[in-house]
Design brief:
With 262 residues, the chain is an alpha+beta fold. The protein contains eight helices and twelve strands. Strand 10 and strand 11 form a beta hairpin. Helix 2 packs across helix 3 and helix 7 packs across helix 8. The longest helix has 16 residues. 37% of the residues are buried.
C-alpha cells in the first residue's frame, strides 16, 4: 500500500521560553505543502526496510521506530517498508516527522487497528515534537514543544509557493542553543488574520542562522526582490520560502527547489 508523506512550512516561529526539561516552548503556524516522499508498506514474512532517492544519514530511521511503537502495543506482523526520499534532510520541512507519522497512520490502516487520532498523536509525540501535526495534517496554530495543536483558518489559495533548500545542513540543537527565548512583540494568531502584505511575522532562528550562513540571507533577499509577498526560513533551516501572487522567474544553483500553487 502506498502513502505520500508531505512536508510543512513554518509561518512564523517564536521561541517563547525554555522549559525545565531543556526543551523550548514555541509558537508557530504549521502549514502542509505538497512536497512528498513515497512510502510503501506491505505485510511480509520478515521485517525489511529499504530506501531510495535522497540519502538518509544514520543507521536508524523514524519509520522503523514508528513500527516498533505500534508493534510493542498491538503485536502486528512484520512488514516490508520502502521509503523513497524526495524531501531534503535538515531542511526545516518536517520530512522525517512526516515519514514517522504516516507510518503510524499506514500501520493503523493496513492492520485495521482502530486507533483514533487522539491516541495516534500520543504515539507520534514519542517519535518527535513535529510528528503529531502530520496526523491531522491541516494548517495549525502550534504551541508547547510543537505538540499543542489548534486548527487555524488561513487562506493562501491562488498564491504561489517557492521553496529553496541549499546544500546546507543546520543542527537544530545548535540553533536552539543560540536563540534567546522571549515573548513575541505581536500575536501570531492575530497577525495571521491580516492580509499577507501586512504580516509582521518573524522566525526567531533567522538572526543567528543568517550570521552563520549569509548565503541563506541572500536567498531570502532574492525572493523579496522577485516580488514575494512574504518570505521566511522554515523551522531552523535551511529551507527558505517565498509566497508570491504570481509564479516568479528565478534560478538557484545547487539547490533543491519545490514550487506549487497553494
Amino acid at each position: 500500500m502506498l502513502f505520500f508523506p508531505n512536508a510543512k512550512i513554518n509561518i512564523g516561529l517564536n521561541i517563547t521560553s525554555k522549559r525545565s526539561d531543556n526543551f523550548h516552548n514555541l509558537e508557530s503556524i504549521f502549514y502542509p505543502i505538497g512536497w512528498q516522499d513515497i512510502l510503501e508498506i506491505v505485510p511480509s514474512d520478515k521485517m525489511n526496510f529499504q530506501t531510495s532517492g535522497l540519502i538518509i544519514p544514520g543507521k536508524t530511521n523514524l519509520c522503523l521506530k514508528a513500527y516498533e511503537i505500534i508493534n510493542k502495543k498491538y503485536s502486528i506482523p512484520p512488514v516490508f517498508i520502502h521509503l523513497h526520499k524526495n524531501i531534503p534532510i535538515g531542511a526545516g520541512l518536517g520530512g522525517g516527522s512526516s515519514n514517522a507519522a504516516f507510518t503510524l497512520l499506514a500501520l493503523n490502516k493496513i492492520f485495521d487497528l482502530g486507533i483514533d487520532k487522539c491516541e495516534l498523536k500520543k504515539l507520534a509525540i514519542q517519535l518527535g515534537a513535529d510528528c503529531p501535526f502530520f496526523i491531522d495534517n491541516i494548517p495549525s496554530y502550534v504551541l508547547g514543544i510543537g505538540d499543542v495543536l489548534e486548527p487555524v483558518n488561513i487562506n493562501l489559495s491562488n498564491y504561489y509557493l517557492l521553496v529553496v533548500k541549499p546544500n546546507i545542513f543546520i543542527s537544530t540543537e545548535k540553533a536552539f542553543a543560540n536563540v534567546l527565548p522571549k515573548k513575541p512583540n505581536t500575536s501570531l494568531a492575530k497577525e495571521i488574520t491580516k492580509p499577507i502584505e501586512n504580516w509582521d511575522i518573524k522566525n526567531d532562528f533567522e538572526n543567528y542562522i543568517f550570521t552563520q550562513y549569509p548565503e541563506l540571507l541572500e536567498i531570502k533577499r532574492s525572493l523579496i526582490n522577485a516580488g514575494a509577498k512574504y518570505t521566511s526560513m522554515s523551522g531552523s533551516g535551511s529551507s527558505i520560502y517565498g509566497i508570491f501572487s504570481v509564479k516568479p522567474d528565478l534560478f538557484f544553483k545547487n539547490c533543491h527547489i519545490y514550487q506549487q500553487t497553494l
